[in-house]
Amino acid sequence: MDFSGAVILNADSAERVNSKIRRFAELLREYDSDLDAKIVPSFLRRDANSKPYAVVHSPSGCEPYVVFYFSDNEDPVNLFARIIDGDTRRGNVVSRIEALEEAQRKFKEREAREELLQAADEFHFLATSRSSNYVRWVDRNTGKIVKLDSNRRRVE
Q1: What whole-number distance in Å separates Cα of residue 70 and Cα of residue 81?
Q2: Which of 31, 37, 53, 83 is packed most tightly, with the most Cβ within 10 A?
């Protein structure tokens, strides 16, 4: 199947998909640079109920091929575990559980990193905005927490 019209899921196409699918696409690309999550164009789908996304393997020197199709309803953690399990070529239950745990750990790490970046962004906004809200700050000389106004002056 020719995927020349397919859109690769990345930060540029983030507005088209939910955050879990976008995170799955980013983790997939980090896991293996030959794997991509792509949006299947409507003209390539068999019918309206077909799954809108595909994991495509594009090995160097070979034609790209579809590993599997997926939809918004499927859990990205299970999809990523499926990739890890298929990559290790182990078919026993223990390896599936390990793959699932690794996928869950990676998703939690990514989510925590995004939350940390969001909190840092909010802190930067609060610390540098000129609103009438007060900011709590640690005085370097005394080590006490003080309130600062929008011009970074002490408020008693």
Answers
A1: 14
A2: 37
Residues sharing a CB contact under 8 Å with residue 32, sequence separation 6 or more, in sequence order: 83, 87
Q: List the structure tokens of 130.
A: 């000129």
Per-position DSSP letters for 5-56, written without gaps between them: TPEEPSGGGGGGS-HHHHHHHHHHHHH-TTEEEEEPPGGGSSSTTS-SEEEE
Coil, helix or strand at residue 147: strand
pTM over 0.85: no
Rounded to whole angstroms, how far apart are CA atoms 107 and 84? 13
Burial of residue 141 (CB within 10 Å: 0-12, 13-18, 19+) is exposed
What is the spatial distance between Cα 65 and Cα 116, in angstroms, rounded to a whole number?
Answer: 36
